[in-house]
């Protein structure tokens, strides 16, 4: 990981309109992502975690401009992609790829593995020569640990784990710098998950990749991330280096998520915080702090004022009134590690 910012989200919002009646009038909005700003440093792996409905996949798609944000900006290597017409974003697409959650749905069943791997090279015109494309596809198969004969086979002839290896090879086929893994192992058997995660870790080193790794499972993110961001109802509520997040979470929601991860160290007992209630609807999030309906520390201020993200400890940010005074300054004693 370097100090160079490769990808930056600036106040990203994605509001989906709720339509009603015969004339489909807009009666409200689902705030899937609500004012998210974050930086991804070159060479790092940033884990993004949250329950389903927290907005993490929508955020991932906006970072790749697969979804147009309602407002906000995305920068890639210093260039403002949001200011560019779609046509001009195309050259950036080869640098930014995605590995999808469902290796069954994301691969066209009528295309051979060879065609699936060569298609992005054709679309982005990264390899124009046919023979060269085939050589590269075979090389990719080897890199992801699949036999060369896979080239002429079809997706249905492979297991889930093997299909996800094809998905990873396809993402690598344009020599990207940045890959988003959108729950890339959650559809796989637990026994296969660590093999795919280890492969992704090795590839990151080998090809100097930068990752955003989206998951609902903190134990998966722990395996692969350098930093972790926790999302709740469309907002990032905490972001920190992995060790700080797992050993000293600041936000009550992160604390609850981490408390639910089984510890492999029997000498360390984790404080369990039981989350009460369901995730509220993003169409009508609670006023003030969106987590207040489930938070064991909720108090009067939480009902009135939405907490802003503050740097509580070095490189450890949280959005929670437990750490700030009403004027926004850090509380006495907070900020000492
Ligand atoms: Fe809990 Fe209040 Fe902090 Fe929200 S701001 S997490 S309700 S203590």
TrEMBL record:
Stored InterPro entries: AAA+_ATPase, ABC_transp_ATP-bind, ABC_transporter-like_ATP-bd, ABC_transporter-like_CS, Oligopep_ABC_C, P-loop_NTPase
Record bears the keyword Nucleotide-binding: yes
Gene Ontology biological-process entries: peptide transport; transmembrane transport
Pfam families: ABC_tran (PF00005), oligo_HPY (PF08352)
ABC transporter domain span: 18-258
Keyword vocabulary terms for this entry: ATP-binding, Nucleotide-binding, Transport
Xref: Gene3D superfamilies: P-loop containing nucleotide triphosphate hydrolases
Superkingdom of origin: Bacteria
GO-annotated molecular function: ATP binding; ATP hydrolysis activity
SMART domains: AAA
SUPFAM superfamilies reported in the protein's UniProt record: P-loop containing nucleoside triphosphate hydrolases (SSF52540)
Family: Belongs to the ABC transporter superfamily.
Cross-referenced NCBIfam families: oligo_HPY, PRK11308.1
Official protein name in the record: Peptide/nickel transport system ATP-binding protein/oligopeptide transport system ATP-binding protein
